[in-house]
Specification:
The protein has a 5-stranded antiparallel β-sheet with strand order 2-1-5-4-3. Helix 8 (187-195) crosses helix 9 (199-215). With 216 residues, it is α+β, with helices and mostly antiparallel strands. The N and C termini lie far apart (98 Å). It has 2 domains: 5-115, PAS domain (Beta-Lactamase, 2-Layer Sandwich), CATH 3.30.450.20; 135-211, no CATH class. Strand 1 and strand 2 (41-45) form a beta hairpin. It has 9 helices and 5 strands. It has helices at 5-9, 13-23, 59-66, 114-126, 135-138, 144-156, 166-178, 187-195, 199-215, and strands spanning 27-33, 41-45, 75-83, 86-97, 103-112.
Length: 216
């Protein structure tokens, strides 16, 4: 008994369904009968991706698959199509042959990648892009006092404390206050030692700085 092409292609329907169910609603699978140019689409699943329906011709397959230089070993992989108002549809087509070796059909997977681009944009918006925190370096600190010392030294920098006048020391203490250095327990004593002044002097600096802030 001779089996016509369409009957032979129907056995691929479970494969089409399996692919679509595996990759979800954004994955459309289309089965074509290449023995007829008209009404060549014989089965679709998740056809909301491109809007292809049963009975459609295979016109676009001519250039993108059958005549494509990318067709290797009966597979044209990862080409892009725009259909149904969607610009980011990734497609792969496989030629289906009968026992005589004739290409009688084509199974095409169309995947809507637009949601992936949206996720990519979302991740790009929330990921820190500049000055990433060096966690390895942070683990070198054993306690908050060490962190305080590091901050204080960074603020003082290369300045010669012995030659520093009151105005400059007041400016440095103001910068430390702004950065929250004095919220760390023991920081005030450390700052006093670093600036070679008494704790009482640091208190007077802070009072002056806070009075100015309240005045503004």
């Amino acid at each position: 008994m001779t089996i016509n092409a369409r009957d032979e292609l129907m056995k691929y329907i479970p494969i089409a369904d399996a692919i679509a169910q595996t990759f979800g609603k954004n994955c459309e699978v289309v089965l074509y009968d290449l023995t007829t140019s008209q009404s060549s689409v014989i089965y679709t699943t998740n056809n909301h991706v491109t809007g292809i329906e049963n009975g459609h011709p295979f016109n676009h397959l001519l250039t993108q698959v059958l005549l494509s230089k990318n067709l290797q070993n009966d597979v044209a992989a990862n080409y892009q199509i725009a259909s149904n108002g969607k610009e980011n549809v990734k497609s792969t087509s496989v030629l289906l042959r009968n026992t005589g070796g004739d290409a009688i059909g084509c199974l095409t997977i169309n995947y809507d990648t637009e949601p992936l681009f949206q996720i990519q944009q979302f991740l790009s918006d929330i990921v820190v892009k500049e000055n990433p925190l060096d966690l390895k370096k942070e683990t070198e600190y054993n306690n908050v006092q060490e962190i305080a010392k590091t901050l204080i030294q960074q603020i003082i920098g290369e300045s010669d404390v012995e030659k520093m006048d009151r105005r400059k020391k007041l400016e440095i203490v103001a910068s430390m206050e702004e950065k929250g250095v004095f919220l760390i327990r023991g920081a005030l004593e450390t700052v006093a030692d670093a600036l070679q002044v008494s704790k009482v002097t640091i208190y007077s600096y802070l009072d002056e700085i806070r009075d100015r802030a309240e005045g503004n």
